[in-house]
Structures are given as C-alpha cells and as structure tokens.
Amino acid sequence: MKAVIFAGGVGTRLWPLSRKKSPKQFEQIVGNSSTLQLSVERLTSSFTPEQIYISTGMPYVDMVSDQLPDIPKDNIIGEPEMRDVGPAVGLISAILRKDAPGEPFAILWSDHLVKNVKLFNRILGVGGKLVEKDKDSIVFIGQTPRFASENLGWIERDKKQNEIEGIDVYGFKSWKYRPDKVTADKFFKSGKHLWNLGYFVTTPEFLLKQYKKYVPEMYEKLQKIVELRGKAGYEKRLKEIYPTLEKISFDNAILEKIETGNRYVIAEDIGWSDVGAWEALKEALEDEPGQNITKGKVIINNCSDSLIYSYTGQTVAAIDLDHMMIVNTEDVLLICPKKSTPKVKELVNSLVGTDNDHLT
C-alpha cells in the first residue's frame, strides 16, 4: 500500500506565517516540526519511506526533500503549475499505476493534526484491505464530529456494510460542503453525519477509470505525461502539458460522479483537526474552550480565548485581551479579533499586485 500526502497549497488563511516563499506545511506551527514532517511521522509505523509519496508544487520540491531526506526523490512529485486538486490527484494516480499497479493508496493532507495515530494507521490498513477485496471501490475516512462546524464538509453514512478488524465500514449516502448553521446543527445531532477530511483509499486503476469516463481529455493528457516517467524528456513533457489541464477541483471532476455502490465510509474519532486557519489551529490545540494558546516569547495578563504567536526575538506582551489573534513575524504583525480570521485570506488577496505583494 502507498500513501500520498498533498503539500502544494500556499495557505493564505495562516498568513503572515504562511507565504508563497514558504507555505504553512513547511512551517513549525505546532512544536518544533512542520505539519508536513508530522504528517509523514505518523505514517512511519505502517509505511516505509519508499511507500510514501509527496505531491507539491515544483518551487517546493527542494524544501520537501530538505525536510524529508528519507523520502526518495522520485517519490516527490512536483506540479509545474497549480491547477487545483483534480489534475493533481489525476497525475499521482497515473504515476502510481505505473509505479505500483493494482496497489491500494491513501490520499492524505499535510496541514492536518491527528491525535490518535494508532487508530489512524489501523483505519488506513482496513481501507487498504477493503479496496483489495473490492477493486472498484473508494473508501472515505470521516471524523466523528466534535461540534457543528459550518466550515467543513460533511459526509452522511448509510447502513453498516462490513466489519474488518473491529472497524465498522458503512455505505456512503451523501455529502454537503460547508452547510449553514441550522443544517450543521442538524448534522451534528443526527449521529449519521461525519466531518469530511478529504482522506480516502482506493486504487490508481479505479480512479483513472473515473478520469477516463468523466474528464477524458485530462485523462489522455495525463497518460501522455506519464508514459515518459523515468525516461529522458519526462520533465519537459510534464512542464508542457500539465499547465494545459483544466483547472478543476477533485470533487467536481470525479468524486461527485462516482457511482454510490462503489463508495464506502469508515467513521472513527481519530482526534483530527484542520490547522489551515488561525481559529482552527487554536481549537485544535486548546484543552478546553476559551484557553489561551501561545508560542515564542509571549507574556499575557488577564487575557482569555486568544492566540498569540511570536516568531521573532521580540517579546509580545498582552493585557486584558479577549478573543484575539496576534501573530508576530519578522516583517508583518497581524492583529485581529478571532471572529475576523476568515478575512485574513481576503486581506492577502488584496495585496497581490500592489507595493505589498512581496508580503504575500
């Protein structure tokens, strides 16, 4: 079985720590390791370095290699241009069909935290065994919800289909992307809805069959790219063809069109958190709601429910602050109420093409 970790996004929601020159997955957001390093570390009990692939942008290939020296260089797949997740998953599927035909693989992400690592690895193993038995299938891994989130996608599971090594496997019923508050509350109380993590297990052959059916032009171009993998001219062809692929999400290109009978769901509490935004990071790290979260040289006095990070030698001192986000870097200091963190991405986008473009 193979594991693929996607590490290509710029991460504007975690600005000013995350920048184009060094996106969030390469930064020490939690502890002294990057989230990319943590993503690989939690796989080491079940996967060898040769079984792990990293998908990233070409500008970041060397950064991946520096942070993950044990991963073979051929397993670090660089996209010459960001074309969204649809083409990225297609490319890695085509590569894996050539490198490891018929072998299950898991799609994972580099900006998440998982607290129950043993259970997470068990689930990946069960997903692999299920896919080996049913080659025309895809297994989605969901997180038992901790609250009614409006910022995540949700999966509705169907009836129980199987049990493998103590892990329940359900049929897939439906999904909803970022529901409104009323709907999220309903999902949370239903007992049948899960957070959609974007994690799944399948085979390259099954996915490529879907690409051939639903995005045939992309499929043909991907085959043309990969036929030269390991040969002279591969990099040149990749750089010529990949930027011509349709820019489309994986959900729109493939997932929403796969026949229901081939979709399964595993639902467990693996202690998963998306740390792609400051508010989400705070929620992931706090032991109880309202706790202050700090990193670096920080002094707080009578503050509550605030995140204060200092990535410089400066000490940040805060008095009488509630529900605030403060992130101090060498050239940018971000200060905003916790409720305003969704606006960080808007702010960064507004800087593009201006005199402050170098800060993005």
TrEMBL record:
Domain Nucleotidyl transferase as annotated: residue spans: 2-287
MF terms in GO: mannose-1-phosphate guanylyltransferase (GTP) activity
Pfam families, A to Z: ManC_GMP_beta-helix, NTP_transferase
GO BP term, example: GDP-mannose biosynthetic process
Domain MannoseP isomerase/GMP-like beta-helix: 302-351
Protein name: Uncharacterized protein
